[in-house]
Design brief:
163 residues; alpha+beta; 7 helices; flat
Length: 163
């Protein structure tokens, strides 16, 4: 049996790499294995593939939540700390300001195209049909069906002149 480079800590490592947003090629490089070997581990070692899925799922959910917030807009608090030195000593002033992040049209479009593609896709494809061509093709199919049926019934269906 060929020696494997697989180590017990690989699942924990790939879960962490996935949480950091690394793609699988980068994970393989960090593990010191080829992409082919990485793919092999994914298919043959459930603990390995499960760790990748868990890591990706966490980050994907965070991105989804951020996209959602960005699409709708939100309020946040900005804190500024200013330190000044004067005759009375060092003075630190902290100010809080509520700011508004306006809804982002691009985020809205992206969200809607993915969540409601039937209503929000870029182009609606219309297909035109030449009715005469369609009828000719239907006749060809009908003739082919008759030939097929004739073979199944010893050609008696094709006989136009009964004897």
């Amino acid at each position: 049996m060929a020696k494997t480079k697989y180590e017990e800590n690989f699942p924990a490592l790939v879960e962490g790499y996935a949480k950091q947003g690394l793609i699988e090629r980068e994970m393989a490089l960090k593990l010191g294995i080829s992409v082919t070997t990485f793919e092999e581990y994914k298919t043959k070692i459930p603990e390995f593939s499960g760790a990748i899925k868990r890591g990706k799922e966490i980050v994907d959910r965070e991105v989804e939540q951020s996209l959602y917030k960005r699409a709708l807009g939100y309020e946040y608090e900005e804190v500024k700390t200013t330190t000044t030195e004067g005759p009375a000593g060092v003075t630190t002033i902290t100010s809080k300001t509520t700011k508004v992040m306006a809804p982002d049209v691009t985020a809205m479009i992206f969200w809607l195209k993915n969540r409601k593609p039937a209503e929000w896709r870029d182009a609606i494809r219309l297909e035109t049909v030449d009715i005469n061509q369609a009828l000719k093709e239907a006749e060809k199919l009908d003739a082919a069906e008759k030939r097929s049926d004739a073979i199944d019934t010893n050609y008696s269906v094709l006989d136009d002149n009964p004897e």
